[in-house]
Write a structure and sequence with these properties.
Apple; Pan_app; 5-stranded antiparallel beta sheet; repeat; signal; globular; alpha+beta; Microneme protein MIC4
Length: about 280
């Protein structure tokens, strides 16, 4: 039985669609010295539950690796390039520039390219591409469930239907769907991932500690639910960012231009809108 966890923000690895394929490549990506030898054409059919990757949730570098596209480059023009010893150094260099949306690292030549704008992916053996920002609450995780208590439980025939139910519930921040019993579990708050022995799929509809620099308007708001409702009632609003300590709601239009910002929570107008892209 396949264990699946979906997230609409950062895609996990490469352009693969099967959970076992993605997890197998992700496990290889955990070791930086092996990244240059990752081959998308040779993928072990190993269930996620059998992977030995330890307590990667507490590894500060794990989430950034979980967002990698292996053997994938970006056609987006670069604004800076230089030789970097490893992938992590390239990612950290991107973090130094607010307008850096993603990076591509040529593992063979140890060359790092910083990019600004939408990620235009293309197949490129030996290249590794990743977004500047990747948090565990934004990552599609396979073979993992969320331990956060459910606020609603129902029956659905597909994960997409579960996602739609989460989109219609203002309190739902993410969901878990079990492919074995077709049960849909709506959750509230930040995702708390844990390995699962069933056929779970979990995906967030909100992204924590991630803001958006897209154009918009700002005003005081009591909570993030009210902020999202204001966005849903505004024709031009595509997403909203809420900062709880400041009680500020930022309605945004256009494609999210994400950035790391503590205490910000960014929400698409509806969860069913799709991925929160770099």
């Amino acid at each position: 039985m396949k264990l699946v966890v979906f997230t609409p923000a950062c895609l996990l690895v490469g352009l693969l669609g099967q959970p076992e394929e993605t997890a197998a490549l992700r496990s290889k990506a955990l070791a930086p010295e092996k990244i240059s030898r990752v081959d998308c054409s040779v993928v072990a059919e190993q269930p996620v539950s059998q992977l030995q990757v330890g307590d990667e949730w507490s590894d500060p570098h794990f989430t950034s690796r979980a967002c990698l596209y292996i053997d994938v480059g970006s056609e987006t023009p670069h604004f800076k390039e230089e030789t970097r010893a490893d992938l992590e150094s390239c990612r950290l260099w991107c973090n130094q520039y607010r307008h850096c949306s993603h990076f591509t690292y040529g593992a063979r030549e140890q060359r790092c390219y910083l990019k600004s704008g939408a990620m235009k992916r293309r197949g490129a053996r030996g290249d590794i591409t990743g977004p500047r920002i990747c948090d565990i609450s934004t990552v599609t995780l396979y073979g993992v469930e969320s331990t956060v208590p459910s606020i609603e439980e129902t029956q659905t025939t597909a994960a997409s239907q579960c996602r739609e139910k989460c989109a219609k519930n203002a309190k739902c921040s993410h969901y878990t769907w079990n492919s074995g019993n077709r049960r849909c579990y709506l959750k509230s708050g930040r995702m708390s991932p844990r390995r699962s022995q069933g056929g779970e799929t979990s995906s967030p509809c909100e992204w924590y500690d991630v803001g958006s620099e897209s154009e918009g308007v700002s005003f005081h708001c009591a909570d993030k639910t009210e902020c999202l409702i204001q966005c849903q009632g505004t024709n031009w609003c595509t997403h909203a960012t809420y900062n709880a300590p400041e009680q500020m709601c930022h309605l945004k239009k256009g494609t999210p231009k994400n950035r790391a910002y503590k205490d910000d929570v960014t929400m698409m107008k509806t969860c069913a809108q799709g991925q929160f892209n770099a």
